[in-house]
Amino acid sequence: PAAEAVVAVRAGALVDTVAGRVLSDQIILIEGERVRAVGPSGTVSIPAGAQRIDLGRATVLPGLIEAHAHLTSDPFRAGYQGLGVSAIREALYGAKAARDTLEAGFTTVRNVGAGAYGDVALRDAINDGDIPGPRLLVSGPALGIKGGHCDNNLLAPDFNYTAEGVADGPWAARAKVREVVKYGADVIKLCATGGVLSKNTDPGVQQYTFEEMQAIVEEAHKLGRKVAAHAHGAEGIKQAIRAGVDSIEHASLIDAEGMRLARQKGTALVMDIYVDEFILAEGERAGILPESLEKERKVGQLQRDNFRRALAAGDRIVFGTDAGVYPHGTNAKQFAYMVQYGMTPMQAIQAATVNAAELLGWQDKVGSLTPGKYADLIAVEADPLKDVSALTRVSFVMKGGRVVKSAAPSATVG
Ligand code: ARG
User: Fold this and answer.
1) ipTM of the prediction greater than 0.95, yes or no
2) 66, 3, 54: which is closest to 28 by C-alpha?
């Protein structure tokens, strides 16, 4: 076989997400799809014939990781408008969303909830090289109770519709885990409480019982899959953590005991504190139900205040935004909120790199530019450690050693 292509990327500044510091004038040596060496310019020997990419004064970071997205969801077809969208149409929409998300600098995405295994198809199409997109870790349909947040409650009983992830009772829930794993799920998503965007559910109310969640977690872990639990209400959050889930999604109304339990059990909190802005500004036009807008007005600010408290309490917070509720590719808008509510820019970057990689179980593949990991990297022209919103203007993206986007004014390729 032919020798793998060697690329030397020079970075004026490089964010070391493991140590939490910025290194100046670094060379990242890439062989094939992986990082081979990283070090100060002059100390890394660049083989003759290597391609050179000089990113000038830009700041280079490992590719960003989004831990909570719905790539097959079009934000402007919410509520009843979404009922006319076929699963095949959703998958095609997902191809566009995947490209937009990758070009925005997110080289890895955990997709937590999609109908008809559209996310599995998307993952496989990207991995086969048919379409561009981030590395995907996907759940397939989300598990939940009948009539709950992960069901679809929009239609009259005459239509007799139940979402494919619905499974009531510990054994049915266990069987559903086996089913979604059979059809390609890498991770299991469950709904522990009601939600904002579903009809006739209350975010504060627990849905799956402790016994059901315990069964799901046991089966999922046995099969080597982690579990992500949608949970807004304080009691549902605590029961999900006690049942052993790996992450709490949203965590809006988490209380002090929930924060303590999360620390004890090492449960990550994936708090989507940007999306409120989009829902309240654009939701009505997008088709979001009036009752959902009402629920959002109740939980949005509480979630942001609890983000600040959970951070201060020392909980592990991972970057996840619920993209698909708002437009794909604008995920990085959330960084500014994470800083506004208490993180340093470095902490926010770590939440979307090393810490997210660990939650995904992909700490050996992504999250830092370390020899052996994938050569997934991005560049921004302004300093994200001074102004984290610089991450909304990514000028260069490389995934697995291949340049995906190169709009960097300072880049020279030779
Ligand atoms: N998918 C979530 C739900 O319907 C969205 C919650 C959005 N609101 C928020 N403040 N994070 O429950």
Assistant:
1) yes
2) 54
Classify burial at 18, counting beta carbons within 10 Å of its beta carbon; exposed 0-12, middle 13-18, buried 19 or more. middle
Domain hosting residue 11, numbered range = 6-63+368-413
Q: Which residue of 151, 197, 199 sits with most ligand 1 atoms within 8 Å of its CB, as the best mutation to test the pocket?
A: 197
* Residues 257 and 122 reside in one and the same domain: yes
Ligand 1 binding pocket includes 300 (Cβ within 6 Å): yes
Report the number of distinct structural domains present in the chain: 2
Closest ligand 1 atom, residue 273 Cα: 11
Q: Are residues 79 and 55 in the same domain?
A: no
Q: End-to-end alpha-carbon separation of the chain, Å?
A: 25
Counting atoms of ligand 1 from 1, which one is nearest the CA of 303? 10
Taking the CA of residue 3 as centre, how many other CA atoms within 13 Å lie in the half-sphere pointing to its CB? Answer: 8
pLDDT digits (tens, 9 = 90+) for 181-239: 999 999 999 999 999 999 999 999 999 999 999 999 999 999 999 999 999 999 999 99
| Residue 1 covered by a domain | no
